[in-house]
Each structure stands twice: as structure tokens, then as C-alpha cells.
Design goal:
Layout (H helix, E strand, L loop, with lengths): L32 E8 L5 H11 L2 H8 L4 H22 L8 E3 L5 E3 L13 E8 L2 E8 L3 E7 L4 H8 L4 H8 L5 H21 L11 E4 L5 E5 L9 E9 L2 E8 L7 E6 L10 E4 L4 E2 L2
Parallel strand pairs: 1-11, 8-13
Antiparallel strand pairs: 1-5, 2-3, 4-5, 6-10, 7-8, 9-10, 11-12
Length: about 290
Amino acid sequence: MSPFPGPHLPPDRPMLPAPRDIAGGLGAPASCTVTLWFCPTDALAPAVAATLAAQWLDEQEQNTAERFLFERDRRQYLVSHVLVRRVLALECGIPEAESVIRRSPHGRPYLQKPAGGLPRGGPEPDFNLSHTGGHNLLGVVRRHRIGVDVERLDHGDQEFDTLVHTFAPEEQEWVAQARPGQVRDRRILRLWTLKEAYAKARGLGLGLSFGAFSFELAEERGVLGFRPAHGDPARRWRFMELEPAPGVLAAVAVVADDGEEPVLELRHGFPWARSAPRARAVLGAARAVC
């Protein structure tokens, strides 16, 4: 795999360098664009986030927000969900408060297409959201499926050990070869974010056993090989790893057609307006692992 990881489909159908280092890493022209927004929760002041949420979020989202015990968790929920509605408004032209967001039986959110079609036309977007202590990541693509995950490296060792037990045997062996500490923790989190991104793109989340598929990773960054879950052709997938902030790892998984080279555009902050991407890079296909 190269360095780096539509119309709405039925809900259940089946490390990069830091951004400044990838800006020149473009390959051949791509036939689709993946937009990635990395938005710190602090990008919106608490009062601003609350005001936008009161105007934009639907009743279910409002009720969910009220159930959080800790203010920091409620604030992150509000910021991440107004982020979704703002980005969809920029993509599709639907006002934030008028977007109807449904969930599949496995809990994957999707935009319900308006009866009259999208105001700005074009294929329907697929989107995926992830967040971790103070950071939010949203991926959007047209015509395909996308999954994203973002995690912090400052978890406890016990939690990392729990994650390893869910991996495929060959992945556990690769983790065990690393010396304890940050090197080992980074290997674990690289695998975990890629697995989360792939499972979320499949629409299955934790309903897909993480031992049923595996990744072969380069020492520093990049996916060398991929063994998909049973019945899922590896040639469809493109992956990318990122570290959008120090100590914060992220992964992207996108379905792509044969010969297609999707381009990822990474943007930072809250999308008050359309902004130039912070970086661009081509998502590459990993060789199949038998």
C-alpha cells in the first residue's frame, strides 16, 4: 500500500506523517475524493456549541445529550454532532436543522435523501464519525462507503492489553515482538484504529469479530497487506493511517472500485466555511494476505 490508512448504500450492505508532511504526496489523479475533518472539541466554545445544538440537533440527539453524566462528555457529543450536520450542509446544501439522520439496525448513521433530491445534486454522501477525549474525526465520501476511527495513545496498559486479545493471531505475534512501552502501544493502537475503521465502513462495528480479519503493517506507517473478513474481497479497500495531532492516531477505510485511487483531503477545525485542505494524499490498496 502506498504511504498513507455515493449514492447512499443500504445500511447493512456489505501512519501517515503529520499533515504537513504529506502535502506533496499526490499520485495519479483520483476518481473520488474523501473529505476528512479533524475538529478539536475546544474549537467551539461551550456556549456556542450549546446554541448550535439547540438549533440543529433533532429530538433524539437532544435527549441523548441530556443523559450524559459528565459535562465534558456531553460537550463532546454536542460538538461532534453539530460538526456532522454542518459538514453535510456544506456537502449537500440541506440546512443543518433539516437533515434527517437515520440509523441502521447495527447503529450506523446515514443521511435520509430528501424526496426532491439533494439541493446541490450529485451522489449521496456516506459519512462516519469518531471521537476520543477532546478530538472529533468525521469522514465523508460520495458514491462509496467510509469508516474512520480516532484514538489517543495515553490509555492505560491494562486497556491496551485487553485490545490485543481481540486481534488475529498474526497480529498478536507482531505486537509481542515490540518492546514494552510506547512502541508496543503504538502498534496496538494502529491495528485497533484500522480494525475499527474497516468494521464501521462495513456497517457492522463491534458486531464483526476483530480476529476474523487482519492487517500487515509497515514498521513506521502504512498498510502492507490485508486479509479481509470471509466473503469480502480485499481488492475493494483502500486504507490510510494518520496522526493529525501528537499522540492522536487515526485510520480511514474506504471502498473503492478496481483501478480507482481515492484522494483524501484533510481539514482542521470547525467548518464555518469551505476551507482549503490542510493536506492531500492518495489512499492506496494493500496486497491480499492469504
